[in-house]
Amino acid sequence: MDIRALTDTYAVAPQLMPDEMPAVAAAGYTTVICNRPDGEIPPDIAAQNMRDAAEAAGLAFVINPVVGGAITMENVQAQAAAIQDATGPVLAYCASGNRSSIVWAMAHAGTRPTDELIGLPAKFGYNLEPFRPTIEQLAKAGG
Description:
Layout: E1 4-5, E2 10-13, H1 21-26, E3 31-34, H2 47-56, E4 60-63, H3 73-85, E5 90-93, H4 98-107, H5 114-122, H6 132-140
Parallel strand pairs: 2-5, 3-4, 3-5
Antiparallel strand pairs: 1-2
Helix pairs in contact: 3-4, 4-5, 5-6
């Protein structure tokens, strides 16, 4: 399990496995967000199996499938709502953690400086620079 904390309350990870959910809970996370569409993964790690494992470990689980190259405002809004509704730290995952970083940055546009929203994920090798114009537009529009 490779957890990459962007902030004290939000981290991203590459694909998690069902048997890792107790360790996620032990690490202090309260909510897991799945940003991977079922169509790109094997059935054993499909969202419902992951939900069952997360809930068995006492975690809240949110399904917000983000298609690479086709992030929607609904994805951004769902991510923001899941983060806001969480009772503690959130761990979001996708194939590499990149999409989970992008929707986090877009969800926080206007609440943090754009350079920070791009720079925090960059520490883990995620290049959000191509999303700078979108993040700045969202910030100007009030997020």
